[in-house]
Automatic annotation (TrEMBL):
Record bears the keyword DNA-binding: no
Function per UniProt: Could possibly oxidize fatty acids using specific components.
Record's keyword annotation contains Lyase: yes
GO molecular function: enoyl-CoA hydratase activity
Protein name: enoyl-CoA hydratase
Signal peptide feature range: none
Top-rank lineage group of the source organism: Bacteria
Record's keyword terms, sorted: Fatty acid metabolism, Lipid metabolism, Lyase
InterPro entries reported in the protein's UniProt record: ClpP/crotonase-like_dom_sf, Enoyl-CoA_hyd/isom_CS, Enoyl-CoA_hydra/iso, Enoyl-CoA_hydra_C
SUPFAM superfamilies: ClpP/crotonase
Length: 259
């Protein structure tokens, strides 16, 4: 499919890569870009060959936020009544395959929220994260006030949301927002290595792991542990479990068939 504000490609025919592509606007997330992102995510999710998806930007910006120009004149009736800004932001939550954010440069406002909607974030050493909406007279609108405290704790989330300051990659890793920091020129190499590794594992175990970790953020500990246990039990019905354990016992590499 031809896109205007993103590009897509695959790596090793196993990883789907979506690159946000409005470089002059620092990848500001316009409504049309979000529609295209949703379409690309759904297409990779439906492609049986793809085992993991990566969203990235460019060296200067992952995304500097929702498009302020597009939002500037919106009224309450536009945003609440017609749901202009928010309606295409939820698609990513319905994607069942893992989605990694490979972040270099600015990840601000909606850009930081988009990164947090991904399953984990690998950051280049020049990455900068923040929720500067307060400076515009608004607050985060795509989950920032909810996901940021879960990732970095209340104190730092309050600091970022109330002052609008940015935090660099080192602070973000120390706080638990990003899983690892890599040199800028190694960002895609390291991210694709992780994505290819994930794509090589049994698809059902991968999806169950994603679903189960996400459950940790949405309910009680007891419910989450029970959910995990049921998925753990269910994976013993898969051929991939037999293959993975047989391979270990017989000291050979496992070949998963996603069955
Ligand atoms: N929207 C639109 N255009 C932008 C945005 C943006 N968020 N960010 C940067 N741009 C544009 C600039 O206007 C500029 O365009 P032009 O060249 O035509 O003047 C171009 O990108 C380059 O930007 P700068 O010249 O400002 O570059 P600097 O390197 O000097 O500064 C900054 C970089 C610090 C990132 C600066 O651009 C900045 O502060 N940007 C705005 C950051 C921001 O406030 N983000 C939050 C936006 S609000 C939001 O995201 C709400 C999310 C709600 C989601 C709701 C859906 C569910």
């Amino acid at each position: 499919m031809a896109y205007e504000f993103i590009t897509t490609r695959t790596e090793g025919e196993k990883v789907g890569i979506i690159t946000l592509n409005r470089p002059k606007q620092l990848n500001a997330l316009s409504p049309q870009l979000m529609v295209e992102l949703g379409q690309a995510l759904k297409a990779f999710d439906a492609d049986a060959a793809i085992g993991c998806i990566v969203i990235t930007g460019n060296e200067k910006a992952f995304a500097a936020g929702a498009d302020i120009g597009a939002m500037a004149t919106y009224t309450f009736a536009d945003v609440y009544g017609d749901d202009y800004i928010t309606r295409d932001w939820e698609t990513i939550r319905s994607i069942r395959k893992p989605v990694i954010a490979a972040v270099s440069g600015f990840a601000l406002g909606g850009g930081c929220e988009l990164a947090m909607m991904c399953d984990f974030i690998i950051a280049a050493d020049n990455a900068k994260f923040g929720q500067p909406e307060i400076k515009l007279g608004i607050i985060p609108g795509a989950g920032g006030t909810q996901r940021l405290p879960r990732a970095v704790g209340k104190a730092k989330a309050m600091d970022l949301a109330l002052t609008g300051r940015m935090m660099d990659a080192t602070e973000a890793e120390r706080a638990g927002l990003v899983s690892r920091i890599v040199p800028l020129d190694k960002l895609m190499e390291e991210t694709l290595a992780a994505a290819l590794m994930i794509s090589g594992y049994g698809r059902m175990a991968v999806m169950a792991a994603k679903e189960s970790v996400n459950k940790a953020f949405e309910g009680t500990l007891a419910d989450g542990v029970m959910f995990e246990r049921r998925l753990f039990h269910a994976l013993f019905a898969t051929a991939d479990q037999k293959e993975g354990m047989d391979a270990f016992v017989n000291k050979r590499a496992a070949v998963f068939k996603n069955q």
